[in-house]
Amino acid sequence: MPTFEEARKIILDNVTPLGAERVETLESLGRVLSEDVVAPRDMPLWDNTAMDGYAVRSEDCRESTILQLTGFLPAGGNMTETVRRGTAVKILTGAPIPPGADAVVPFEEVDEADGHVAIRVSVKRGDNIRFKGEDVKAGETILPVGTVLRPSEISMLASFGKLFVPVHRRVRVAVLSTGDELLEPGEPLEPGKIVNSNSLALAAAVVQAGAVPVMLGIARDNKESLREKLAEGLKADVLITSAGVSAGDRDYVRDVLDELQVRQVFWKVDIKPGRPTAFALRDGKPVFSLPGNPVSSLLTFEEFVRPALLKMMGHRRVLRPLITATLREDIQKKPGRVNFVRVALERENGEYFARSSGKQATGFLKTLLLADGIAVIPVEKGELKAGDQVDVQLIAGDGGLMEA
Ligand code: AMP
Ligand code: MG
Predict the structure, then answer these.
(1) Where along the chain do the CATH 3.40.980.10 domains lie?
(2) Closest Cα to atom 20, ligand 1: which residue?
């Protein structure tokens, strides 16, 4: 049975980025560049003013001086006449520096009256000018392959006039729930039956990872039903199943996958919760069989499936940021397995503190709702005491964590 780290490494070693496609620039948000983007031109395109003010010849302004105002240049304007000795041109932010001028004096430092301006400060060549190519040079690899596209990257692409962007394809992920006890959400309840919450939960996690879920519904606990649904699922890029992989009498998922030439890589990982997780491959296509318990299936998705999907979509950073937090209370654990503990976090004086977000038995979904992070407690650790430090994966992002 692999350890947590071994299992994750085996999975990541067995998946590779999918091909690329060109999408409209706005559609590329959150996606990963599949090719380098080289700046086709300088940015800025020409020398321009960073301030509203007066374009001058700096040599005219060694000490306080009066210049004749000869023109006005708003943003979007362009001027071909040269700014001559002893003259100035009123200029608004972003306008190109007119020929002859080599500095801009901001409004605040000038008195204007009767067609003249009195400059009250000394002026150096280049003051308040944004120079051609100062930000980006033509030919520079401004966005390397593997870049995750955020609004700032979209801004750069837009300023280069890019209407389409080459990105890695989104992964299509088939989601299948299994079990005779399952009803779809909205169906009338019946004794002994439970609602299939895993399909929507896992699909939501797929969407959040930036991939595309393909809903397969429910397969029943018999081989015919499983054969049909699993074969359908193998048409997607990745197949995820939930439940039916323990050692119960009707846990046929692994048998049927085997019939369908899906090669099992591992079954069971030394973790808690989520031990009955299986990973298999058919011609390089990953198949994840997750436990049925709603908490376990989401946690194992988080730990194993999400990183794989991200790698397949070209991401280089596939794991959540880890922080170190100090425990506010004792946490029960036996040595021997990695434990994932759902924790609520607080920040105080720039430090993180963690407490259990509720009952840790896997039946309690609410504990996951209340969690800001997953504390990953190493194999060898026994019971943890208040004051001990733990590594915590931030699942909610830390944006919402306010100082107490
Ligand atoms: P199993 O892995 O088949 O032994 O299922 C473990 C537990 O998860 C059982 O209590 C199931 O009823 C529950 N379960 C299985 N599938 C789902 C599902 N799709 N949605 C919600 N709970 C489920
Ligand atoms: Mg079952």
Answers:
(1) 4-16+170-312
(2) 196
